[in-house]
Amino acid sequence: MKTLEIPKDGLEGLKQNWRSDAISGFLVFLLALPLSLGIAKASEFPAAMGVLTAMIGGLVVSFFAGSRLTIKGPAAGLITICAGAVTELGGGTQGWHLALGVIVVASVLQMAFGYLRFGALSDFFPHSVVHGMLAAIGLIIFSKQIHILLGIDPSTLKGLSTLELFELIPDSLYHEDPRVTLVGLISLVIIFGMPFIKGKYIKKIPIPLIVLLVAVPMTTLMDFRHTEPAFDLVTIGDFWDNISFNADFSAIGTFVFWKYVIMLLLVGSLESLLTVKAMDSLDPWKRQSNPNKDLVAVGGGNLLAGLLGGLPMISEVARSSANINFGGKTKWGNFFHGAFLLIAMLLFTPFIEMIPNAALAALLISVGYRLASPNEFFKTYKIGAEQLTIFVITIIATLATDLLVGVGVGILVKFFFHRLNGAPLKSLFKPHYVISETDSVYSIAVREAAIFSNLIGFKKMFARIKPGKKVIINFSEAKIVDHSFMEFLHHFEEEYHLSGGQLAVQGFDYFQHFSNHPLATRKLTPGSQARFEVKLSPRQTELRKFADNSEYTYFPQKVKTSLKYKDFPIQLGNRIPYEENILVQYNESGKIEVSDITLQEGALQDRNETQITIVQASDLDFPVPDFALEPEGLWSKLFETVSGKDIDFADYPEFSKKYYLRSVDEPTVRHFFTRTLVSFLENHEEMHIESHKHRLIFYKKRELLEPDEIKALVKFAEDFLLTVEHEKKLLSEKL
Predict the structure, then answer these.
(1) Residue 711 burial (CB count, 10 A)
(2) Which one of 179, 390, 577, 615 has the lowest number of neighbouring Cβ atoms within 10 Å?
(3) Alpha-carbon distances of 583 from 532, 548, 610, 734, rounded to whole Å
(4) pLDDT of residue 1
(5) Could you tell me the pTM of the whole model?
(6) Which domains does the chain show, CATH number per domain?
(7) Which residues in the chain show pLDDT less than 70?
(8) How far apart are CA 290 and CA 117, in angstroms?
(9) Helix, strand, coil abundance in the chain, percent, nearest 5
């Protein structure tokens, strides 16, 4: 485990963390280079202009950004807008130059939004609408890139609508280029197959890098340069000579110009702000970003990029998540990612021009799939059927019209559901509450409705709450509380606990929950007390039987974990928002608790959820130092800079070879791992063990366990604790 001392900013931060930020910046660069090229081509921009935007985002914007861990660069979410602007403004070079004028004007307005502190406006857009918009963008990306992957000439696709592009797929399959398609299909196999390879460190290798390491030699062996049309390979051209004042404002008086200005402003700002908020929740040090300052910085970067010929940038979620997972600590990670892109454009342009567009299309198809995967539909449905309805209607409206209309329709449908479920007109935009304060307690009575459209007002009220007190929120006088408000309340609870305060929620006794999800919308149902009817799944039925036979108390419901796993290494850079299927038992060593936790890696549309069965031991009669122990693998040494230095024991070479041990208190940990405990670990199956504040967690693998496996894991944990306890007694007897 690494120290949680907050990394410094500025030059002191560079001096303190340059190694980890440089490594992270390099790994993010490997991810960003092919994606920037692919996003630019899909946006009807010259391919290298995507790299220009990412360079500006790293080398310039990093000095002014209001967030520490986000990576700035071109985003798949803006492909539809950029490509539409280029096409509707004339296409080709003319359309590109006029689209740059759109970007410049939108960036000036974006900076004004930041200066006017409009960052909070992102809360107005309900999550189901935003995710629906992104899913529609994913489908639009797929509709174009599938043809590129099959080797179809991109010029034959110009001007076709999304539905027409989908209708053309059978024809493209019939006329596909076999060699180009082979490269594309192998790229897809790598992209979708790599996540199934086990190993925490294997997952840290950027998949786009592996795609390029396979695709480029394939195209070289097949001599694409001389045997395939020019459009099948990336073309950079004279990159540096093309960087000049490229923006054209001659279309500023047209409706099309301003339509795309508004689209870029709203969608770009919204995606950026949501990413900043999401990365704050993944920050191991829980630092809070300044969203308005970040919006100004991104707007300034877009202004420079638009003037010189580049795409618009945002705080990009996939690269930002990767930066955290790779061990980035400060803004210098973003800077180094831009610096490596600059070096690549200076020295490696011939290599970049060997990259097949089919491989880039495969990467973009995977991005589109993440945005519109079946899992997105399922996750939305789990929150509530009304959320899925809004999600699907937003997708359909966006595909049938455009992003602005689609988002507008989604919001109107959301309002319709809220009115249908009892939200009064007077509370649609204005929050109603009564707040009182004593020396130690805030009492808040929420009235009428707490929903997405009045959330900004509620946030202003919560922002005035002083840290370190108890906050009691009573919803008994409310009629409806929606998912957006519940999610905000969940994040507020986490942050307020960090300040030393407590939060208690009351008054939901007579509310109907729209699903069993902890953050589902709920509405008042007078006269009938709310009941949680938990329909047990086959797994839960099996676990209940196991609990009855093993004398455990069993709680099947999904519950929020709040800060239960805070600062355990398993959560650093990730989140554990929920746990369920909790089995509790007390024995001689203390409290033993088994649970299925949900581990969220990444954020927003790039978020992956993994369910893991763990055992937690607490209420112990003896102290345990903070440490993390895990099986040592091929990549452990490579990622020591990220995860922490491995503590080796000269007297126990087999143990040191088998396990990767880290801690901020090496002397105490060396004393804790006695010969008897080391022998115990050497003679048992490899296990992950983490300790924090005298609590231990054990897990065997990042998967759910069956009852027999749970029994074995608990036995291991109990034997481990008995071994430690025995050693402590022997030591005390000697003293």
Answers:
(1) 15
(2) 179
(3) 19, 10, 19, 38
(4) 42
(5) 0.85
(6) 18-406 (no CATH), 432-524 (3.30.750.24), 538-734 (no CATH)
(7) 1-4, 199-201, 527-534, 562, 633-644, 731-735
(8) 10
(9) 55, 15, 30
